[in-house]
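[Meeting: bench + compute handoff]

Bench side (C.D.) handed over the final construct sequence. Compute side (W.E.) agreed to return the predicted structure before the next meeting so the bench team could plan truncations. Sequence as handed over:
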Amino acid sequence: MILPIAGIPPEQVVGSSIKTKYEMRDGKPVLMRLPELAFIDDKAGKPAGIQKHIGRRPILAFGNSDGDLQMLQWTAAGGGARFMGLVHHTDAEREWAYDRKSSIGRLDQALDEANAKAWTIVDMKNDWKTIFSPESK
């Protein structure tokens, strides 16, 4: 199966995961989902999940909230050429706007670090002519 939105095979996607366990049911082996998270793909869980599933430090990382800061820091700490970028959601008319004091999608500490370390910051309102393709409407 390939994730239809971006054409990315699922083995190349890291995300929060639910614990499973093996058991026999009616003489057949099955994997049962448990009502527990194995890990949460947010904050410190992001670099841990990347290391667990991919086994390598990224050379390029994009984020859009403080939940991505640790992933960006982990990427930046590697040797050689690295790219860290933040998408700053500033366009409430065409998409969504959130920032330092937002109730959701907070971008505060990561924005400060991006500015301090000269990471690339993309401002949706000012830098993107198109946010959604005309076909997606």
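W.E. noted at the follow-up: The mean pLDDT is 92. C.D. will use this when planning the next construct.
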